[in-house]
Every structure is written in C-alpha cells, then in structure tokens.
Amino acid sequence: MSGLVSYRAGLAAEDAVARLYARSGRAIAAARWRGTAGEIDLIARDGAEVIFIEVKHSVTHAAAAERLSRRQMDRIYGTASEFLAGEPAGQNTEARFDVALVDARGQIEIIENAFAA
C-alpha cells in the first residue's frame, strides 16, 4: 500500500473502532491524543474507567496483531500516564489497554486488557 492509502485505511479503521465502542455505550474521550511520549489512537470511557485503544489494521487480524511491538506498548504506557495525570484521580484512575484488530474486510476484533496478557 502507498503511504497515503495506508494512512487513510488506518484512519478509517480508527473511525470504525470508535463507532463500535460508542455503540457499546463507551464514550470516546479523544481520538489521536498526543502527549510528549507519543500518540494514542483512541481513548474511551466506561464509567470511571479509562480505556486506551491501539488500533492495528492489516490484511488479517493475525497480521495486524504482529504489528504491535514492545517498544510501541512502552510508548503507549508513557502517553497514557500523561493523559491520566489530567484525570481527577490521576495515576490511580482505573484504566485498561485494549487492542483493536481490523482486517482488510473491515472486520474488527477487540482484545480487551491486551497489555496484561
């Protein structure tokens, strides 16, 4: 895929995942939230819990999952920490990290609390 096509496919995947979370009653608090450590694709709220969502798009769900590296996870942790600093409970805010895998057909697989595995 060319860079622009890949970029647009990624944005479309993020939008589809945001709609899925919103339909399930989880409000989207931010899209492409940027801190000094990096960017988080989506941030949702489920009551008091904050959900940090990394969206991965590829031909298959397995190929999308392979695109998440330890380095990326560390960057997401750092960025999430920056976001939580602005929450009323700060770092004590209940939070989890989900990964949303989107395949070439637009099918979405959500792995809740993926970083804990």
UniProtKB/TrEMBL annotation:
Any Pfam family matching the protein: UPF0102
Chain coiled-coil ranges: none
InterPro entries: Restrct_endonuc-II-like (IPR011335), tRNA_endonuc-like_dom_sf (IPR011856), UPF0102_YraN-like (IPR003509)
Domain of life the protein comes from: Bacteria
MF terms (GO), sorted A to Z: nucleic acid binding
Family: Belongs to the UPF0102 family.
NCBIfam families (UniProt xref): PRK14676.1
Protein name: UPF0102 protein GEU84_011865
Organism: Fertoeibacter niger
